[in-house]
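Here comes an entry:

___
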Amino acid sequence: MQRALPLLAVACWLLSAAQVAEALSHPTYGSEYVLLGLLSVAGLASCVAWLASWRYAPPAVAGAAALYLILYCVRLWTAQIEPRMAFTDASLLEATLDSLRIVQATVAHSLSIGNLLLAAGELFYEWLMPLAQVGTLAWVIAASRRAA
């Protein structure tokens, strides 16, 4: 288990970097992908340091995970939640749940038309990577508390 989580984190950051590289190849990419690309490189480097058991790797891993979650929440707020609240009389909870339902519906639509790669990419970007970062952050915090 000691090596499984760093290897999972490396795989997640590699997939994130691949998605960013693909998104940056389109002429209409958003500036969030540049930030996500830089964060992917930093996250990957911190996970490699974690695998090498460097002393300062856990804070770097936790920092990369926290920054990813902040970027994810800002993107979710600015691209999905806030516009729904502006155009409807929805509360914050209703707008959040509605945006999460729309994300689920886009994944289901991609699957229904047979585009498995697009569905897998959306599922990873919208659900799995944020959950992996929450898990990584929780693991690093728990490990630091056990060590103290």
Summary: The chain has a mean pLDDT of 88. DSSP finds five helices and no strands in the chain. The longest helix spans residues 116-147. Residues 103 and 126 are 7 Å apart (CA to CA).
